[in-house]
Every structure is written in structure tokens, then in C-alpha cells.
Amino acid sequence: MKLSTVVITASVLSAASAHGGVGQYITGSTTYKGWEPYNSPSGQSSIQRQYSTFDPILVAGLSTVNIRCNNAGTLGTGPIGQVAAGGAIKAHWTQWTHRPASVLVYMAKCPSSGCNGWDGSGKVWFKIDHQGLVSGTQNAGKWAGDTILDTLNWTSTIPASLQPGDYLVRHELIAVHQANNPQCSSGTASPPNSYLVSFPGAYSASDPGIDFNIDSEAAKVATTYPIPGPSVWSGGSGGGQEPAPTTTASPSTTFVTSMTPTSAPTSPPTCTAAKYDQCGGKGFGGCTTCAAGLTCKSNGEYYSQCL
């Protein structure tokens, strides 16, 4: 089965930041190179769609086309990857995003003309994987984003019954670390209409998992988190399931990836950054001083965070 992958690594937040991007896609013994957003596009060839920045999409971006693939006008970059239905796709990030975050993975079947000239519009996206709060409380527990911070990897399984064809696969990270911030085989099956969503359109700023305050009193005792978007489609005709975050399967996939940007923080440089806020990095113009008791720690050339 051929798949075209539009991979979005983004945080959909108001005044927040999830900085990072998928740099490799691994299917079985094959590794596909991701796009390099800060290098010239000249000579680059990737299964991932072009994107220009590690900056995340803010709440205002929920209604823009950038939420699909992190770049409003640029479509495919050429090659695609291969993966068998029932196989696994491992996304490897080049640098860290944010620790308290949920991870969501979507797919969309491309038209007969292929993925490179298609913008992913319409009610065509279905979710194959997601994980939010893993254990403990919302405020102090372990989140799916901890896995990416610790390993820089996230592995998802393609539904075994999925109809053959070219697909976009979309990886999304929703950082939840700030208060009050809404934040692309064999088989014959296709997901029912009830599992399909469009981007933009899948999320609302008032969704519980978007309009979320991790520092609220309720978050200090809540042990579940409402992951935004539709239920996971696992390949059957019944209800969705939440698959395990990793898998040992190792086939191969076809991708055209793209990542999700967002507006950069606009806090004045004289302000004080709170816990989990960005406090530095290449091109950053916001607060560089952390609140009392916190330290500005670097997570790569483009991002530092108050911890």
C-alpha cells in the first residue's frame, strides 16, 4: 500500500509554543528524510511537505489552512514512501517540543491524481492514533509528550484493513502547558463518515481539550484528559479504539510530510516567563527571564524553556 504523508508537528495553543519538527520517518528498515525548514528549498527532496518554521499554530490558526500541513500554499515535494497496511510508521523529531502534550496522528486518502497536487481539503481526515494524559493528574502527571521528549520518537500502526492507495499522514502535538490557552497493503476498508473531519474545522476554541488550563485547581486532581478531534479508527466497522502508543510491527510507508507552524510569542522582552514558557532560542523575541525558582533551559538551537 502506498501512502503519502503530510506530517504536522505542531502545537495548537494560544500564546504557547511547541517548537520542533519531524526529521525522519522510519518504516521497517527504510528511513525517509524529512524537510529542513531553515535551509534553502533548492535541492531538497523529501516525502514531507515543505514548512518554514518550528513555531506552533496559535488558537487564531485553528481556522486557517496552515493547520493541515503547516504551510498554506506549498504542496508535495516529490517522493513518497511505502508501508504495508498493518505496518508501522515511526516519526523521529529533530529536537524537542514540549513535555506536557498530547499526540494525535491522522490520515487522508488522496485522489486518483495523487497527493503532491492535493491540498488535503474537505472532510477526509481520520484519526489512527492518539494519546494524551498517560498517568497521574493533568497538572503533575505523565503525558504522551514526555515520550517524545525522552526518545524523540513516536510509532503508529496503519489499520490492517485499510484500503490500498496514496495517503497523507499528519502528526500533531497539542501542548497544554499554559493556562487558558486553546490551543498526511491489502485491505478493503475505509473509515465511516462519522470518523471523518476537515482541517480547519475539526477543532473549536471551546473544545475541552483546547480551552484547557493545566494550572487550574481541577487539573490538579483530574486523571483524564479529553483529546480533541474524532475517535480513533482502528480499521473495523465498530467504535474507535485508542491504540498503544508504540508497536513492534515494521513494514514500510509512503509519505509526503509537512509540519505545522504558528505565530511566534509576542510577549515583551521585559516580562517574566512562567513555567513551561519559551525563554530563548534563535529568532525568539519574547521574555528571556524566568519567574522566581525557574531556570531557562535550552532544548536545541531554536528553543529554550522555563523549568
TrEMBL record:
User: What name is this protein filed under?
Assistant: AA9 family lytic polysaccharide monooxygenase
Give the record's keywords alphabetically: Carbohydrate metabolism, Cellulose degradation, Copper, Disulfide bond, Metal-binding, Monooxygenase, Oxidoreductase, Polysaccharide degradation, Secreted, Signal
Name the SUPFAM superfamilies on file. Answer: Cellulose-binding domain
Q: What is its main location?
A: secreted
Provide the reaction this enzyme catalyses: [(1->4)-beta-D-glucosyl]n+m + reduced acceptor + O2 = 4-dehydro-beta-D-glucosyl-[(1->4)-beta-D-glucosyl]n-1 + [(1->4)-beta-D-glucosyl]m + acceptor + H2O
Which GO biological-process labels does this protein carry? cellulose catabolic process
N-terminal signal peptide: 1-18
Which stretches does the entry tag as region Disordered? 231-262
Which residue ranges does the record assign to the CBM1 domain?
271-307
Q: What is its EC number?
A: 1.14.99.56
Any Pfam family matching the protein: CBM_1
The subcellular location is:
Secreted
Q: What's the stated role of this polypeptide?
A: Lytic polysaccharide monooxygenase (LMPO) that depolymerizes crystalline and amorphous polysaccharides via the oxidation of scissile alpha- or beta-(1-4)-glycosidic bonds, yielding C1 and/or C4 oxidation products. Catalysis by LPMOs requires the reduction of the active-site copper from Cu(II) to Cu(I) by a reducing agent and H(2)O(2) or O(2) as a cosubstrate.
List the biased-composition ranges (Low complexity): 243-262
Q: Which cofactor does it need?
A: Cu(2+)
Q: What InterPro entries does UniProt report for this protein, alphabetically?
A: AA9, AA9_LPMO, CBD, CBD_sf
**Molecular function per GO:** cellulase activity; cellulose binding; metal ion binding; monooxygenase activity
Q: To which species is this protein native?
A: Periconia macrospinosa
Swiss-Prot/TrEMBL domain comment: Has a modular structure: an endo-beta-1,4-glucanase catalytic module at the N-terminus, a linker rich in serines and threonines, and a C-terminal carbohydrate-binding module (CBM).
- Example of a GO cellular component annotation carried by this entry: extracellular region
